[in-house]
């Protein structure tokens, strides 16, 4: 993403579609910046629920025309179209009555006036005003943190989102090349059936692809891409990636279901300098890969129920309470002979005292 982006950033579609935004509290407005690898139209918007067969999405569609102008230019006239029904309301997601012929129309209008270029007036030079730069908010590691090698070259952290049933990861690796990270039910086993993602940063863009390893050779690209990149950065020969996946992707046998309370093998590798392409990337060095067994999602905590009292025990308890109330006095003596201390506690029944 470019240097002029806002501090809040999301990388979508493996770095092809990047969005950043800022909220202006004083004006109660959002500002967005989109960077998309396309020469066609771009769509972006919001929805309360999705995916819903594209129903009720609030979206904007824009782009840059072949002559270098945007879709809506200052000084450009467009058509305003309008209609209404005199008495019947509309229902969302349903049909509504057609407007009468005299209750609709079209009008051509220039919404944005053409820019007025004033004649410059000579003025005394004044010191230039330096704009305050936008400070990028860099993500921090998640609560669960592991150093996967002995030298601190490969670090990973993660968190499990129970409400979304997703696992979120952040890897920080001393490399400018590709980074591999994944899970396996058995490892090491000649790199068979590892569910992995390979990603990195190249040319100012991030990338991440979902693979299934098939031995010590180039892994096969998964048709269903389930590892999703959300952040990337390459600085001072260190690459940082954030990504997530569903705990259960429903993509068997290409993906592994990560079960709560069950240990799994974390598999990792990287190349120190060369980035990956979807269908080809160089093999990692022997000292730049590894395996570690770990439980990513703790088992659910089950409260042990307290055994219930029998009928006989319950009657004894009730009789004891009745006797204590009738006497109106409970005396407890605890003598700690081993410590040479005596503790005397007496509780008087105030009702009886009266």
Automatic annotation (TrEMBL):
It comes from Porites evermanni. Residues 152-271 form the DOMON domain. This is DOMON domain-containing protein. The chain crosses the membrane at residues 319-344. PANTHER family: DOPAMINE BETA HYDROXYLASE RELATED, MOXD1 HOMOLOG 1. Pfam families: DOMON. The keyword Lyase does not apply. Keywords: Membrane, Transmembrane, Transmembrane helix. The keyword Transmembrane applies.
């Amino acid at each position: 993403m470019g240097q002029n982006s806002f501090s809040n950033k999301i990388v979508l579609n493996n770095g092809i579609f990047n969005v950043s935004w800022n909220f202006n509290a004083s004006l109660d407005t959002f500002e967005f910046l989109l960077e998309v690898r396309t020469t066609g139209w771009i769509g972006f918007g919001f929805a309360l629920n999705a995916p819903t067969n594209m129903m009720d999405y609030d979206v904007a569609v824009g782009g840059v025309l072949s002559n270098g102008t945007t879709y809506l230019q200052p000084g450009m006239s467009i058509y305003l179209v309008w209609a209404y029904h005199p008495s019947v309301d509309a229902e969302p997601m349903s049909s509504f009555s057609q407007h009468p012929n005299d209750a609709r129309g079209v009008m051509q209008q220039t919404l944005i006036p053409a820019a007025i270029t004033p004649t410059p007036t000579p003025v005394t030079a004044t010191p230039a005003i330096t704009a305050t730069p936008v400070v990028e908010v860099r993500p921090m590691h998640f609560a669960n943190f592991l150093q996967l090698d002995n030298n601190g070259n490969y670090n990973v952290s993660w968190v499990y989102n129970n409400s979304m049933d997703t696992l979120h990861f952040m890897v920080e690796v001393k490399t400018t090349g590709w980074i591999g990270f994944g899970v396996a039910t058995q490892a090491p086993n000649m790199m068979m059936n590892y569910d992995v993602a390979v990603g990195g940063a190249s040319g100012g863009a991030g990338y991440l692809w979902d693979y299934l390893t098939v031995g010590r050779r180039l892994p096969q690209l998964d048709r269903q891409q389930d590892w999703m990149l959300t952040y990337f950065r390459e600085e001072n020969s260190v690459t940082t990636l954030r990504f997530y996946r569903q705990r259960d992707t429903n993509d068997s046998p290409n993906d592994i279901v990560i079960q709560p309370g069950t240990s799994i093998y974390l598999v990792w590798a990287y190349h120190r300098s060369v980035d990956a392409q979807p269908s080809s990337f160089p093999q990692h060095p022997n000292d730049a890969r590894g395996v570690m067994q770990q439980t990513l999602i703790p088992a659910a905590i089950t409260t042990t129920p307290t055994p219930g009292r029998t009928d006989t025990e319950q009657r004894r308890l009730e009789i004891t309470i009745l006797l204590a109330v009738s006497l109106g006095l409970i005396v407890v003596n605890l003598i700690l002979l081993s410590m040479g201390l005596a503790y005397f506690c007496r509780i008087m029944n105030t009702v009886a005292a009266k």
